[in-house]
User: Fold this.
Amino acid sequence: MRRARREPVDPGLRSGTQTTRLVVAHPCHCLDNIGMNSGLIDFSSLRKALAQLQEAVAFWKAQPDGAALKPHLRLAVIQSFEFTYELSIRMLRRVLMERAESADRVADLSFNELMRKGADAGLLEDPLAWRQWREMRNATSHTYDETLANEVATGAIGFAPVATALLAALTLAGN
Assistant:
């Protein structure tokens, strides 16, 4: 859903007599932070998120079972996975919008359509795997369940190389 806000047309006018225009924000919040107005897309945020995910996984795996830090590090892995997953999807949409004749059409794509377009563009190797990552991402709200939390954190280990491959493809396509 798009967000709208009113902005003054002439900020010098007194309030009450201001003429305003409706500004519709893009449904993909990330566009403010990834270089929408520049010619090149800035993938540094995804690169950093991937590095943090890999680091969180390494710290989590290094702790012996039963260690006091293990559950806290598992939560760090889950949170890093959530953030990296969301950013990956937003960057995919951003690159497809840049390549499309109509950015609005890409902005309005459903998740399944986005995955299909990403695969058609050669950016995703296995769109069905991304559906599994999405299901795993949706399950993260239930990580109070010890078994599910372990499944999500373990699954995040497999997500990191897939997200790295997406980053490489996006970087080639976006720049």
About this structure: The first strand starts at residue 3 and ends at 8. Helices lie at 44-62, 70-99, 103-107, 111-120, 127-139, 146-174. The radius of gyration is 20 Å. The longest helix spans residues 70-99.
